Amino acid sequence: MASTRKLSSDEVNALIDGLGSDTSSPSTLMDGDDVRPFQFGSDDLSLLGDYHALRIINERFARLARSVFLPMLRIQPRISSFPPEVKTFDEYTAGIENFMSLNISRIEELRGNLLTVLAPNFISVLTNSYYGGKIAALPMKRNEFTATEERIIELVNEGLNDTLQMAWRDLMPITVTHQNREINPQFASFVDGAELVIICSFVVQLPETDAASFDVIYPLQTLKPIAAQLRSRLQADVSEDDHTWRERMERAVLNIPLTVTGRLSQPVVSMYKLINMQVGDTFPIVIGEGVEVQIDGENAFLGELGEVGANAAINLKSRLK
Question: Which residue of 104, 136, 197, 239 is surrounded by the most CB atoms within 10 Å?
Answer without folding.
Answer: 197
